Amino acid sequence: MSPATDLGFLLHKHPDRVQEFGQSFGTARVLYPEASEHRCTAALLLEVDPVRLVRSRGKSSPDFSLGQYVNDRPYAASSLLAVALADVFRTARTGRCTARQELADGPIPLELGLPALPCRGGADLARRLFEPLGWQVEATAVPLDDDFPEWGDSRYVRLTLRGEVRLADALNHLYVLLPVLDDAKHYWIAGDEVDKLIRAGGGWLGAHPERVLITRRYLGRRWALARTAFARLAEIGDDVEESLEPPAEEEIADAQHDSDTTTGTDAAPDADGADGAGEAAEESQAAGPRTPLNTVRRDTVVSVLEEIGARSVVDLGCGSGQLVSALLSRPSFTRVTGVDVSARALAMAARKLRLDRMPDAKRARVELFQGSLTYTDARFAGHDAAVLMEVVEHVDPPRLPALERVVFGVARPRHVVVTTPNVEHNVKYEGLADPEGGPSRMRHPDHRFEWTRAEFAAWAAGVCDAYGYEAAFRPVGEDDPEVGPPTQMAVFRLPAQPPTP
Amino acid sequence: MEISVPRMALVLLVGISGSGKSTFAARHFAPTQVISSDYCRGLVSDDENDQSATPDAFDVLHYIVGTRLRRGLLTVVDATNVQWEARKQLIELAKSHDVLVDAIVLDVPEEVAIARNAARPDRAFGAHVITRQRKDLRRSLGKISRDGFRRVHVLRGEEIDDAVITYERAWSDRTELTGPFDIIGDVHGCRSELETLLRTLGWTVTPTGAVHPEGRTAVFVGDLVDRGPDTPGVLRLVMGMVEAGTALCVSGNHEQKLVRALNGRKVRVAHGLEESLTQLAGEPEEFRDAAKAFMDGLVSHYRLDGGALVVAHAGLKEAYHGRASGRVRAFALYGDTTGETDEYGLPVRYPWADEYRGRAMVVYGHTPTTEPEWVNNTICLDTGAVFGGSLTALRYPERRIVSVPAEKVWYEPVRPLTSQYSRDPGVLDIGDVTGTRYVETRYGGRVKIAQENSAAALEIMSRFSVDPRWLVYLPPTMAPPETSALDGFLEHPDQAFEEYSRAGVSRVVCEEKHMGSRAIAVLARTPEAAAKRFGVTDGTTGSVYTRTGRPFFDSLTGELVDRLRDAVSPLWDELETDWVVLDCELLPWSAKAEGLIRDQYASVGAAARTALPEALAVLETAAGRGLDVGGLVDRTRRRLDNAALFRDAYARYCWPVSGLDGVRLAPFQILACEGRATAVLEPHSWHLDVLGRLESGILAPTRHVYVSLDSEEERAAAVDWWSALTGSGGEGMVVKPVEHTPGRVQPGIKVRGREYLRIIYGPDYTESLGELRGRFLGRKRSLASREHALGLEALTRLAEGEPLWRVHEMVFAVLALESEPVDPRL
């Protein structure tokens, strides 16, 4: 049996020395608080220099938020630590060790401790990520502030991993999974690091049951490197930026499929709508032939537009452009206009539609621009139909009359298609229903209200009355005999001839 | 020879190549007024004689000419214009901008032109070109007067060199008259009411005229005639006043129709025309003729007072002000209609005033309404005197409404009188806010708003802001002082005092900076006051919102507004107002910012608290083994202490609230009230005094001290005050000049405490003060100045009763500027 101090050979760091490694954002040190035959502990301490951290981010990320200066990077086992670890233990990660190759090649008893591991998804996610790799996981949530117990737990867990694992593998597990767990909103490492991380997952990532989540968290964050002026406004308003994100791609898992979700995505949407949504949608697809609700909804809207013979359509609140894309793929729609108030959603839509490489003939049929439903806008006019798909519920009730005026009063297309959640149906969603029988939760944190069928009908009647439209209703999704469909739809129509006196 | 052209017009020079058009143009017009086809050809081809570039050259020419005409500039086109088709396009362009067109023809003999061209090396084309042009011109001259020109001036021989250009002003141009005016709504033959109204306004009235002792001028919006009991009497009085120069009158649609009837044209006798015809039949023929001539000569609109006031019978959109065309006249007489008719068979009017964004006040009549109502700086004065309503005048520039009731219902209305607008003033237009904008403020000049900042603001405004009718102000950012050199301090009061002293400010006030969330409270005394001043008719009576315009509490805002209204109720009488806008701090910080505190500050605290003791333990054990860990142990211990101080710094501003219990508001400035932008007009001492007298559980006082900057003792005392304040956990203080100080002086300087700055600069900032002292304040200070100017402009516009979009423009601009990249720690 080799002495525990052989760890020094495996790590290529002498147990009796304190070694320093300069990083672009601070200094990493390796030292051994204990080094005996039976037990040897190597510590990697990363001292982050906040000033250098800011500078290391470079000019490409115009980040002017306070989070850049006051953050957990100097304390937490974050993606920065992963970068330092990769650098400091570069050779050890390859599994090469001329002095003790047989030791390096096989599993050895290891214990890894991370006192403050940022872990979005909580202790449970840490277990789900590490256990399949052969670790015994001990993960304890760290409370946010002992004096404010009502604030609950922080995003950090104290993590201890024990197991018989090859050292190189152990290092690579950390290297890849630390940033996954951290899942920092704004990447603290350069974009090309992402590719390196994926490569480091080589041998084991492909078989990992959570590989989808792991890769999505990497790739999903890549494009968000640069922050916008919008983020700054969130902060000065004492708001968390996430709470202001555009409500694009929201969806919740279908109730029936909750039980067999493996990623543990809550049926209730989490604060990060985009992430939870993607996961949920995929989940329901993987679980069976049932079509996700957002697809059903989009298809219904498209067929309604075809039924009424609309040729030009303005999608008010187009988000990332799913409906715009569906309409463009049908030649009968000769002009498709996508409008959103979020510049970010529009950028996403332009990217997903591949606007910059679209053939001229198709490109000529589509237009995207920023607009707001509470400001009259001449560009909204002149379409056969306007679509408000899952939009009205994002508008504060006192501002609805303004929206009605802008759409029905001023833009005044012959048809307006409106969809919105049917709140009665929420009892069918496990995470939303109140076990006490009280009112259910809403489906998305940005929803300002969700209507019953009667409330929706009453609103539509008011609009018809004020602006001379007629409304017809139809269900979207399975029409439950008791609580109705998950989504309700109204098709507003201007009578062909204005009534003559 | 004198050539008279309209002051705002398109002038076409017509003549063959070599006829001397360019020379003529250069002699009589400014270079920028003359657009030549040769020049445009050069622009698009680098060769003024490249005939293949002609179509593109004329595209450019038409674009430039169109832009100039839209902007109301006299424009001269220097091209041959010998062909009818070429002239027609330009005439249509002018008509599309409602501008008159004159032609000046230079009729030069062919030989002269050929000789001139031959002398110019750049004119390589042959004489046959000239001959052809000459032929075209000759053919044109015969019928050019039918092209659609207002006038065609043909010059030959000597006349060309002797020509003198004079300018005619438009009939509508009475901009030299500055008033004061009494603008009077639709009279419709109500002579007695008219006399009563004039006397109420202080006029001396006789049957054939009226004068005002203060030299006021009456302006009639038209529709003097029809329906009422004494159309001849009204005409006699107004004709006398106009002739004497004490009144102006624009034509109404009823005068128009009456003239046609009097001329024997076939018109449908309806809408009260019969009354006029009958009454006039009883008048002597000379009067009938005079009245007919008077009515026939009325112009359709007037621009007055340097263009600041426009009077037209049915109103006029901005693009038509001062213009002349059939459709301008039709708009002025009949208004804008949608082409539909309502259930009474009357035309449905298009709400042009909702979209009006012009600077000129537009006063009109035509559509009877129960009460005159301002819509975007326009007002309709027809209050249906003949239908038993009232006869109304607007005093200008006072903007005061004076009405006298009708003596009886003289004529039954087809449609019952209602309030004219079912408009929703909460709806703004995207054009009011988007894109790159330059907004004018009277307190800081022109402020540029970049497109990307507008885009960010549009999203926040649309998705999160309170109703724009309540969002009348957003507070500006505030700069810290120059960095202190004092050991252990980044900020200190000395630098603030020094800066103001250098700027010539003699007295400042130091106000306690409450560590909460900035809040603007807009409070109306009653739902009626809310409707009248803010146009809010849903029964809400106020709003309390954050510095980005978001509501503080979803469902509790109404209750908060109610409590605050109670708390400030002494202000209604004291300030003679029924609404007020207050600048406040809402406490505790955690009431609004709990998410941010948890996500950002408490998280950092938790990570530090958990990680640093372990790091320290590792280092101490390693040191115990004899490893050389250098100064790391000490440094880590210090960081652990800093982390504890950091945690205390944010926790101090958090306390649990339940509903509104525990929530307090600290008002420190009365931004505006009825008729007064008090933020501009009153010194801070006034604000603090008035607010300090309010007593209520929900209000927190703002402690403050005054400092005469020339007194060392007072400065020292204020520093001690600040030290005590921040020593016991206070955020810091704000130093402001007591009096509103125009110019480049910062409106306020915040001096933050040493411990508070940990949550701004990070727990360990005290370890790197040296580096941090190099901070750059320029951008922040400039931003603070610009936002301050925008904010004061918004308040002034609000107090002056300007339309919503004018206030919103400023508020939106503040929000947009806030998204500019500036070091967030400042």
From TrEMBL, chain A:
EC number: 2.1.1.386
Sequence ranges of Low complexity compositional bias: 261-271, 277-289
Keyword terms, alphabetized: Magnesium, Metal-binding, Methyltransferase, RNA-binding, RNA-mediated gene silencing, S-adenosyl-L-methionine, Transferase
GO biological process, one term: regulatory ncRNA-mediated gene silencing
Enzyme class: transferase
Disordered: region residues: 242-294
InterPro entries: 3'-RNA_MeTfrase_Hen1_bac, Hen1, Hen1_N, Hen1_N_sf, Methyltransf_25, SAM-dependent_MTases_sf
Cofactor or coenzyme needed: Mg(2+)
Pfam annotation, one family: Hen1_L
Alphabetized GO MF terms: metal ion binding; RNA binding; small RNA 2'-O-methyltransferase activity
Cross-referenced PANTHER family: HEN1 (PTHR21404), SMALL RNA 2'-O-METHYLTRANSFERASE (PTHR21404:SF3)
The name this protein goes by in its record: Small RNA 2'-O-methyltransferase
TrEMBL record, chain B:
Residue span, Polynucleotide kinase-phosphatase ligase domain: 456-821
Keywords: Kinase, Transferase
Keyword Transferase: yes
GO cellular component: cytoplasm
Matches recorded under InterPro entries: Ap4A_hydrolase, Calcineurin-like_PHP, Metallo-depent_PP-like, MPP_PrpE-like, P-loop_NTPase, PNKP_bac, PNKP_ligase_dom
Entry's Gene Ontology molecular function annotations: kinase activity; phosphatase activity
Keyword Heme assigned: no
Domain of life: Bacteria
UniProt organism field: Planotetraspora kaengkrachanensis
Domain Calcineurin-like phosphoesterase: 180-368
The name this protein goes by in its record: Polynucleotide kinase-phosphatase
SUPFAM superfamilies per UniProt: DNA ligase/mRNA capping enzyme, catalytic domain, Metallo-dependent phosphatases, P-loop containing nucleoside triphosphate hydrolases
